[in-house]
Amino acid sequence: MRKVLIIITIAILPEISFNGFSQDYDTGIGVRAGVAWGLTVKHFITTDATGELLLTSRFNGLNATALFEKYIPVFDTEGFYFFFGGGAHLGFWNLEQHVFLTDVKAFTGIDGIVGLEYVLQNIPLSVGLDWKPGINFVSDFGLFIDEIALSVRYVID
Length: 157
What we know:
By secondary structure, the chain is mainly beta. The chain has one helix and ten strands. It has one domain: Porin. It has one helix spanning 2-16, and strands spanning 27-34, 37-46, 49-58, 61-73, 80-93, 105-119, 125-131, 134-138, 142-144, 148-156. The protein is elongated, with a radius of gyration of 19 Å. The model is unreliable at 4-21 (pLDDT under 50).
């Protein structure tokens, strides 16, 4: 009997760890405005974790970023979440300045992210504010800590 109780407890523990938390949407598509601006697509992989893809522009170039984020409900408010995570980026600078692309610089590195997101309850929108520091390892080595952005997404159930 004890083994049965242990198995049942282990089976239901993940379901109650966030007080029955489940995401308010499956996928969100929208815009990101900040130092780097562009497009964002966020998709829930599990009830409390997302994958996010960013396609942004900065320094006359393009940057693609893939992030994994963990979500935690906050403020006892339905639809309000704290999230954190990390990922990697790949991009190119100086695309617009040179016709023959001779001075284009490729770069790649890793990113962290931390932020807040609110999913509106009556209309299919989410609004998020985040900080995404990054480090370039290839090409232009550097630390970028100024990427604070506001994202607005249309959410799809």
